[in-house]
């Protein structure tokens, strides 16, 4: 099932919290889906959708933090916002270090939460774009990646040919193929995309 890009997934075992948050967020024109547990959210199989997940930090069964960890393991583009009780602030601060967009103590202020959700949606779109870029890069052949790295260093076709001991025409063919493979139309766009991919790879290595 393909979700609308503005979907907010609410995960909380308190039915009254789900109702009040749904009403609040729908008044800001967000599409909302409710889940009474982390397990119910997992069963919905929306890992690879873009959107925002608002998680209760403490729930029976899987906790909000455990669900967040699963999202990260699945490389989900979904952005996470936490709802916390008064005693959970240190945990929530730690969650921010793990990639959460924000956290709110219950009861959350509607306008501030809506603003955070908008930011989370932007983060989710950026996450999805990074994943798409990485997937296109990983589909390149080893030779195409090699040539891409040399292009990024400023090498011209003749210099690349000399460096790799291949014909200039072969470089031109590989270059055209990698431009097509990376889904870009210009050298500037290629360099911007490659820089973003290199940054993503560096972060994952870190």
From TrEMBL:
Pfam families: GerE, Response_reg. The keyword Transcription regulation applies. Residues 133-198 form the HTH luxR-type domain. GO terms for molecular function: DNA binding. GO terms for biological process: phosphorelay signal transduction system; regulation of DNA-templated transcription. Signal peptide: none annotated. This is LuxR family two component transcriptional regulator. InterPro entries: CheY-like_superfamily, Sig_transdc_resp-reg_receiver, Tscrpt_reg_LuxR_C, WH-like_DNA-bd_sf. It comes from Shewanella fodinae. Keywords: DNA-binding, Phosphoprotein, Transcription, Transcription regulation. Residues 7-121 form the Response regulatory domain. PROSITE patterns: HTH_LUXR_2, RESPONSE_REGULATORY. PANTHER family: DNA-BINDING TRANSCRIPTIONAL ACTIVATOR DEVR_DOSR (PTHR44688). The modification 4-aspartylphosphate is found at residue 56. The keyword Zinc does not apply.
